[in-house]
Design brief:
Phosphorylase Kinase, domain 1; 866 residues; 5-stranded antiparallel beta sheet; 12% helix; Methylamine Dehydrogenase, Chain H; mainly beta
Length: 866
C-alpha cells in the first residue's frame, strides 16, 4: 500500500509523493534526526517479500554508496525496504538549450559517467528523466545501478515505455528505456559502458534540438528505429555532429570507447561547404580550444616526454570581452580559469574549465571583484555587496565570510591552513579571517610611511605571505610577513603585485615586462637576477598591479593589450536617433547638463587611473579641468557624482578623504578652494541631486557596518546636519528630485529586484510605484511632466506625470511606462544619463573595441632555460 503524508518509515516522516516506477514509489521525507529532507525510494509490499527484488535494492545501495561525485545523487543509507537518498531540488533536464549550455551540462554528465565507469559501473538507463539541474546549474544524475522490475509489454504505447529490467538468465531480455537504449540493449544483448555513451549522445541531441531522436507509435516501432534507423543530425549545429556520429554508431566497436574523450570530437567540426564570414570566429575558437585541450591532456597525464613550453589564447565567452576589470586568475591545480565578465549590465564571476569549450557563469556572484582561489582549487573567494564571499565552483550559492568594503578591493590570498588575508577598498589595512568565515581582524596597519598595503600572496608554508607596501606614487616595497607573529622582512623594492611559483620563483612586473626571479620560500631570500617572461603584460600603474596569475604546477596566465572600452558622450532624440556628441571618447561615467543647458560636467578617468571633474562648454566646444585629485591611494574613487547647483555656479561632488568619502563643493570658475559639506565618518556619501530652491542636497549613503545604501538629506541652512530620509534593511538609492521639489524618484530593491518609486518631499507622505518589470536610474524632464528610467531590458522608458499640489499635500499620478529606444551604456558600475531642456538624452555610450584574449602558458619554466 502506498505511503501517505505523515506516515513514518523508521525515523523518516513522509512529506509528499514524488513519483513511482516499476521498482516502487519515491517520496519526499523528513529525516527527524538530522532535520533535513531526503528522497525515499520504497519497494511495494508485494516486492518486499521477493528475495530477488530485495537483493536488487541492496545492490543499488551498494552501487550508489561506492560513487562519491558532485554530479551523482548521493545515498545516505537503507531503511527497512527503502533507499534513503539525496533530495535533488531543481528541474528535470529538457531542451532545447543553447549549445554552450548543453555542452556545459554534457560535461557534467560525462564526468558522472566517467566516475562510474572507472569503478566498473554502467548506468544502463541514462535519459532526461534521470537527470536534474539544480538552481545553481549543477547536473545531478539519478538512478545509478538501478534495475527496475517491470515486465515488457511489447505492444504498449511508446510514450509509456517503461524502464525494462529482466533477469540476465532469461533469454531475449531487455534493459533500458526504449527511446534511449542502445541497439545492443534493444536486441537483448549484454550492455557495457558503451551503452551509456550511446545514451549520452541521444540525450545531448535532445538537449540541443528539443525533440526526441528516436520515435515510434508502439514500443516495437521504437525499438526497430533504434536498431535500424540512421539518426538525422541536421537539427544540431555542425560543431557537435562529429561527436554525435561517434556516440551513435550502431556497432559498439565503432562507437566512442571512453566517455572522457567526448570533447576531443568537437574539434574541427565545420560545415561541408566553404566557411561563411560569420563562421570564421567559431572555427578559429574551435582550433584554439582544441589545441588547449590537447596540451592540457598531454600536460595533466604527465607524459614521459621532456616537457615543452606551450602557449595558447583563451577567448572570452560569446558576446563578452576581457577588460582591465576581468582579473583572470588560474587555479592552483592549473585546470580552471576564473574571471569577471559583464553580462546584461552586471559583473559576475565566470569559470572556464581548461578541458572545456564553454565558460560558465557562477550564479549569485553578481557584482564580483578580484577573485582568488582556495589552495585545493575547489572554491573561489571574491568581493561583492560589502562582503568577502566564497563559492564552490561545482555548484551552490556563495557564502559570506565577513564584511569587506568592495568598491575597489586590493586583493586576497587563501593559505593551506585555511586563513585568508585580504585588503578591502582603500588599501590602508590588511585583514585576516578564517576561510570558514567569522569576524575579520587587522593583521597589518599602515604606519606613517606606508600609504597603502596591497596584493597579499601566501607562500607554501601557509604562514608567511607576500604583500606590497606603497609609500607614494614613486616608491613601493615587497615584504614577507608571518601571519601569526606579524614579523616581516623586506624582499624587493618594486611597485607590483608579486606571486610565488614552484619550484622556486617570484613573479612580478618591472618596466612593462613580467619577470621571474629565483626565490627561496623557506629562507625568504632572493636568488640570481630576474629573467623576463613576457612583455607588454597589462599593468595598472595607479593600483600597482599586473594582470597575471600562476598555478602551482607550471601554468601561467596573463593579458596583453586589454583595456576598458571607452565611452562617447552621445546625444539621442526620443526615437533613439543620434543627434551629436560631446568631447572625445574616454572613460566617462557620469555627465550632467547645466541648468541653462550651455555646459556639461563629467567625471573622467585620466592616465593615472583616477577620476576627476571636467567641464565642457557646449557653445564654444572647449573643455577645462575642475579638480586635481592628489590622492594616489584611491585612484578609482577620486571624484564621484558631480551635480550642479540650481544657479549653475557650483558643483557638488564626492571625494575620498582618508578611508572616507565626503561631500565637497567648488565654483565652476575654479578660483575657489574645495569646501567641505558633509564630513561624517560613519558612512560613505555622495550627492545625487540639489533641490531647485537651493535648500537641500540629496545624498546617497553606504553604511560601513551594514553595506546597505540609503537616501539622506543635507540641509544647506541652519545647523546643516544631514538626516536619513529613506533608510531600511534593503537598498534605496539613485534618488532624483522633481523640478518643483515635491517628489523624489528613487530605486529600491525591497522586492529583490530594482524598481522605481516616487515619494513625496520634503515630508514623507504617499509613495507610488512607477516601474512595472524592473527599473533603474530615474531622471525627470526639465519641466517635470515626464519621468525617464532604464528598464530591465536596457530600454529607455518614459512615464507621463500628472501631479496636484493642494493644501492636503502632493499627489503623484504617473502613466504606465512605455519604451522609447534601446540604450547601449558604456562600461562602469556607476554610469548615468541626463536629459536636456529640449528633451534630448545625453548618454555615455560604449565605443566598440577589438576583443582580446588571455594567454595561457604551460610549462612556462622551460622558457627560462632557453
Amino acid at each position: 500500500m502506498p505511503l501517505s503524508v505523515g506516515d513514518r518509515l523508521g525515523h523518516y516522516e513522509i512529506v509528499a509523493p514524488i513519483g513511482a516506477g516499476g521498482m516502487g514509489e519515491v517520496y519526499r521525507a523528513r529525516d527527524t534526526k538530522l532535520k533535513r529532507d531526503v528522497a525515499l525510494k520504497v519497494l511495494p509490499d508485494s516486492f518486499a517479500s521477493d528475495p530477488e527484488r530485495m537483493a536488487r535494492l541492496q545492490r543499488e545501495a551498494e552501487v550508489l554508496a561506492s560513487l562519491n561525485h558532485p554530479n551523482i545523487a548521493q545515498i545516505y543509507g537503507v531503511e527497512d525496504r527503502a533507499l534513503v537518498m539525496e533530495l535533488v531540488e531543481g528541474e528535470t533536464l529538457k531542451g532545447p538549450l543553447p549549445v554552450e549550455t548543453a555542452l556545459n551540462y554534457a560535461k557534467q554528465i560525462s564526468e558522472a559517467l566517467e566516475a562510474a565507469h572507472e569503478k566498473g559501473i554502467v548506468h544502463r538507463d541514462l535519459k532526461p528523466a534521470n537527470i536534474k539541474i539544480t538552481p545553481a546549474g549543477v547536473v545531478k544524475v539519478l538512478d545509478f545501478g538501478l534495475a527496475k522490475a517491470a515486465e515488457l509489454q511489447v505492444e504498449g504505447r511508446a510514450s509509456d515505455s517503461p524502464t525494462f529490467t529482466m533477469s540476465p538468465t532469461r533469454a531475449g531480455m531487455i534493459l533500458g528505456t526504449a527511446a534511449y537504449m542502445s541497439p545492443e540493449q534493444a536486441r537483448g544483448k549484454p550492455a557495457d559502458k558503451r551503452a551509456d555513451i550511446w545514451a549520452f549522445g541521444v540525450v545531448l541531441y535532445e538537449m540541443i534540438s528539443g525533440v526526441q531522436l528516436f520515435k515510434g507509435e508502439t514500443i516495437t516501432d521504437l525499438l526497430a528505429a533504434v536498431v535500424k534507423e540512421q539518426p538525422d543530425l541536421t537539427r544540431v549545429p555542425y560543431k557537435v555532429r562529429r561527436l554525435l556520429q561517434s556516440c551513435l554508431q550502431k556497432d559498439p566497436k565503432q562507437r566512442l570507447q571512453a566517455i572522457a574523450d567526448w570533447q576531443l570530437l568537437l574539434e574541427g567540426a565545420s560545415p561541408p561547404h566553404s566557411a561563411r564570414k560569420g563562421d570564421v570566429p567559431w572555427i578559429f575558437a574551435a582550433i584554439l580550444m582544441a589545441a588547449l585541450v590537447a596540451l592540457s591532456v598531454a600536460y595533466f597525464r604527465r607524459s614521459a616526454e621532456q616537457p615543452r613550453l606551450l602557449k595558447v589564447s583563451v577567448l572570452p565567452p560569446d558576446k563578452l570581452k576581457f577588460t582591465t576589470r576581468s582579473h583572470p586568475t588560474v587555479s592552483p591545480d592549473g585546470r580552471h580559469l576564473a574571471f569577471v565578465a559583464n553580462a546584461n549590465g552586471q559583473d559576475a564571476l565566470w569559470v572556464r574549465d581548461l578541458d572545456s569549450l564553454a565558460a560558465r557563469q557562477l550564479p549569485g556572484t553578481e557584482g564580483a571583484h578580484r577573485p582568488f582561489w582556495s589552495p585545493d582549487s575547489r572554491f573561489l573567494a571574491f568581493f561583492a555587496g560589502g562582503k568577502l564571499k566564497k563559492i564552490d565552483i561545482a555548484g551552490g550559492p556563495p557564502s559570506p565570510l565577513c564584511d569587506a568594503e568592495d568598491s575597489d578591493p586590493i586583493g586576497g590570498s587563501w593559505s593551506k591552513n585555511d586563513v585568508i588575508v585580504f585588503g578591502p577598498s582603500g588599501g590602508g589595512i590588511l585583514w585576516r579571517v578564517a576561510a570558514a568565515g567569522g569576524s575579520a581582524t587587522v593583521i597589518r596597519n599602515q604606519d606613517g610611511k606606508e600609504g597603502s598595503l596591497r596584493w597579499p600572496w601566501f607562500l607554501p608554508d601557509g604562514r608567511h605571505f607576500l604583500y606590497t607596501a606603497k609609500e607614494n606614487a614613486q616608491k613601493a616595497t615587497i615584504y614577507a610577513e608571518d601571519v601569526d607573529s606579524k614579523t616581516r622582512s623586506q624582499i624587493l623594492p618594486i611597485d607590483s603585485n608579486v606571486t610565488y611559483a614552484p619550484p622556486g620563483y617570484l613573479l612580478f612586473m618591472r618596466d612593462g615586462t613580467l619577470m621571474a626571479q629565483p626565490f627561496n620560500p623557506d629562507k625568504r631570500e632572493l636568488g640570481a637576477n630576474p629573467v623576463p617572461l613576457a612583455a607588454q603584460v597589462d599593468y595598472d600603474s595607479a593600483l600597482g598591479i599586473a594582470e597575471f596569475s600562476n598555478s602551482q604546477n607550471g601554468v601561467l596566465a596573463y593579458t596583453s593589450g586589454v583595456s576598458d572600452p571607452n565611452s562617447q558622450l552621445t546625444w539621442f532624440d526620443r526615437s533613439g536617433k543620434v543627434t551629436g556628441t560631446v568631447g572625445a571618447p574616454g572613460l566617462v561615467e557620469q555627465a550632467w547638463v547645466s541648468p541653462n543647458g550651455d555646459a556639461v560636467v563629467v567625471n573622467r578617468r585620466d592616465s593615472r587611473g583616477g577620476y576627476d571633474l571636467w567641464l565642457y562648454d557646449l557653445s564654444r566646444g572647449t573643455q577645462s579641468r575642475l579638480t586635481f585629485s592628489p590622492n594616489p591611494r584611491f585612484p578609482r574613487l577620486n571624484i564621484v557624482s558631480p551635480i550642479w547647483s540650481p544657479d549653475g555656479s557650483r558643483i557638488a561632488f564626492g571625494k575620498p578623504v582618508g578611508t572616507d568619502v565626503n561631500l565637497f563643493q567648488k565654483t565652476i570658475s575654479g578660483s575657489s578652494q574645495e569646501e567641505a559639506l558633509d564630513s561624517a565618518t560613519d558612512r560613505y556619501k555622495r550627492p545625487t541631486d540639489w533641490s531647485g530652491d537651493g535648500r537641500f542636497i540629496i545624498e546617497e549613503t553606504l553604511f560601513k557596518t551594514t553595506g546597505r545604501e540609503a537616501v539622506w538629506v543635507l540641509p544647506l541652512f541652519g545647523d546643516r546636519k544631514p538626516f536619513p530620509y529613506l533608510h531600511a534593511d534593503f537598498n534605496q538609492n539613485h534618488a532624483r528630485l522633481s523640478p518643483n521639489g515635491h517628489y523624489l524618484a528613487y530605486v529600491s530593491d525591497e522586492t529583490n529586484r530594482k524598481e522605481i518609486y516616487v515619494q513625496t518631499f520634503p515630508s514623507l507622505g504617499s509613495r507610488s510605484p512607477v516601474s512595472v518589470n524592473g527599473g533603474d536610474l530615474p531622471i525627470w524632464s526639465r519641466d517635470g511632466k515626464e519621468l525617464f528610467f532604464i528598464g530591465s531590458d536596457r530600454k529607455m522608458m518614459e512615464v507621463q506625470v500628472k501631479s496636484d499640489v493642494t493644501r492636503e499635500g502632493a499627489r503623484f499620478d504617473g502613466s504606465v511606462p512605455k519604451p522609447l529606444f534601446e540604450t547601449r551604456f558604456g562600461p562602469g558600475t556607476d554610469v548615468w544619463f541626463d536629459v536636456s531642456k529640449d528633451g534630448r538624452f545625453l548618454i555615455p555610450t560604449q565605443v566598440e573595441q577589438q576583443s582580446t584574449n588571455v594567454t595561457m602558458v604551460v610549462n612556462w619554466t622551460v622558457g627560462l632555460r632557453k
